[in-house]
């Protein structure tokens, strides 16, 4: 079914229900990838109205989500429903809704039931950290009376394996087998897909319609991920090709602060790389619609858009498990390497070839600065391997956090990223290709292009694993 | 749906550069741009994302009055190219003039092959390099050198800090399209040079009488004869009157003046060689480069993985509609009139420990093990709640009732109802909030809003705020020494 065809079908209505403070609003925020929905607070009864938003597939409405107030006193409500003397369970609910004025204290629950009756399915959100109390069984009992498919959604599942199993067992006693684990804080796109697939399984007639939504969300996520990887890889590439000429003629001339030209070039290089990284950070945050507030709870060492842990400090290098000795040996020039060796070898070859083939102008233009530098005995300073490795690892870690962070998260959550502090197996090959491309500085250079693509692939594979 | 042409794609990129430059400059900057939203809808139906980008780019240009910035690089480029064409035409004219004067002596006798080498040598070498570059994909050889000179000038004059100019230059002179664009320009310049040279040659040959000869120190007469015949054969095939074998032999250096017919035929040979071995191959190269350039123009696309485009795509195709309240909270005003109960300063008072009947409300083993063991009953369901009500109504509660709750849970209405039922009729009622027995300082005790909610719940249950106590880990441990009925063990 195409999006156009699905547009002819009525929108699917799904009510998000559950006890108060279980993460109903958070679930919707995470699905929307936006904080601009509802209110979230630690108090019970934060959501007191029914608010809806509709998910679109290629611009066409497919699925409306209804955020409902929390069920707070299911025990008393169940007593009321059972005591009403209705013919059947559904009748007890409709009778209750008709006589709501007599039981205004259950106004919140009434909104939930009313919305449930007007929906095609219910997502029952459960905080698995909570004990398995009778009140939750009462809630399921009440919701079951609506005659709608119920999908239990287990939230806050990190490090809660035993509790999760208890809740699963409880759901089974109510014949609710199509349960879903969906942590609104530690987000996983595959879990989102499974949520829609669960809806497909309980609403067979709307299978194709939900499929258009799945396809659309999949494409959107793929675009987001690819764009992020692309951007992060671009940062690494830009850092590799960055070079600064240290004018050695000034070597013996010290400025008022006592620094020589080589140190100046190093500082300039480091500042440039920091700037590049900062821009990349801003772009990635914008891409994933995260704000500065989200950064602080993501435990990223970032403040006011700038990385707090300096890229060039030995502590940062050690934190990512890299060999700090190579930088230490270069003393204060951590982060910068001298390009003479590599530049010299290819420089000579390229110069000779270029001249022989009559492409002298191009050669002079491309290598002019380098030729001049060689002639004068200047150093050409570039980022050393450790810096590039650190840049890569930091972006890899950042991407992982951004891709696994729900927009509903409010507290600090530690994301296990130890596995991501690992360079790809073909890292040396990638770096060598980029360094070769650095010399020609042309995107059309085959080795350079190949290495850029390998870099993106390596990032993608690391994030998928 | 018409696909975007190259100029449209460049416009989109130029607007992107302008917007990103404005964003980098900050909101206080004078270069802040008025933004135009992106829209996939049109009067005729939906349009694709690239088409919507173009529509937006055009609207942005109008709204911000930056057509001049957008057009400037193209205009400057066109001007520079015209100047370059004029220059190479002049060079072509002068090259022939120079070649004729340097290749001839006082009697206007010209060494034909010297003239051919001067006129065609570099051209043929350049074409050979271009062919090698095209086959082996060496970019520098494909693009050549001549066109890069005016481009350097253009780059210095036009680019600077102008974002629109940078985008225009990047689109026209980078990547695959740029390679073939420069190559086409290179061939165009050569063509102009050769045409001017040909024109100049015809002029000179028309105005002056030249004798043509050939000579060599190393090569024999037969070699020159066969070489000339080989070169002349295609010319003759297309109708040029070229010298025959005897005329060629007679034109060897030192053998005397040639006849007018011989001179004319050598002149036609020269013109024909310039056309067939100079202009024609160069024109074919130009055609090939132009064709590759057109293909590259079709394939060229802005990088839609850039965050800028991803953001616009999300604006054009949002994932969801704006939220709408469908069932409003009618009691909002009444609730807002309720003043929040201030969490009073909790003064630890252990009087309740010795006197009161202790009841737990939904205490959890993982968090409140000690507390669970210290209470007479932990309410977890309807049965236990009814039992607790009986206990509260009995003599066991004559000295007071203390309800222990975990501060990690929020006091929902169900808990409030139960609290009220347990405490409101007892004059010595206490509400005890328990922190975690596992960690000091964790849980709701740190959350002011949560504490305020519990004080509110206490108020609803008729419990004085002074009788709301918070117990941290250390205080909770003391409960282990108490019996559930209030006496010490």
Task: Characterise this structure.
The complex is a heterodimer of chains A (465) and B (489). With 465 residues, chain A is an alpha/beta fold. Chain A has helices spanning 3-8, 24-32, 74-83, 89-98, 107-117, 134-144, 161-173, 189-202, 207-241, 261-287, 292-297, 314-319, 325-329, 340-356, 360-376, 385-403, 427-440, 446-464, and strands at residues 12-18, 50-57, 60-67, 121-127, 150-155, 180-181, 243-246, 302-303, 306-307, 336-338, 379-383. In chain A, strand 5 (150-155), helix 7 (161-173) and strand 6 form a beta-alpha-beta unit. Chain A is elongated and about 100 Å long. In chain B, the strands form 3 sheets. Chain B has a 5-stranded parallel beta sheet with strand order 7-6-8-9-10. In chain B, strands 1-2 form a two-stranded antiparallel sheet. Chain B has helices spanning 6-25, 49-63, 67-102, 112-136, 139-143, 148-159, 163-173, 175-207, 221-237, 245-250, 260-299, 307-316, 332-337, 351-355, 369-374, 382-393, 413-423, 448-460, 473-478, and strands at residues 41-42, 45-46, 109-111, 211-213, 324-327, 357-361, 377-379, 401-406, 429-434, 468-471. Helix content of chain B is 59%, strand content 8%. Chain B has 489 residues and is of the alpha/beta class. The chains are: A alpha/beta (465), B alpha/beta (489). The interface between A and B is large, with 71 and 62 residues. Strand 2 (50-57) of chain A pairs antiparallel with strand 5 (324-327) of chain B, so a sheet runs across the interface.
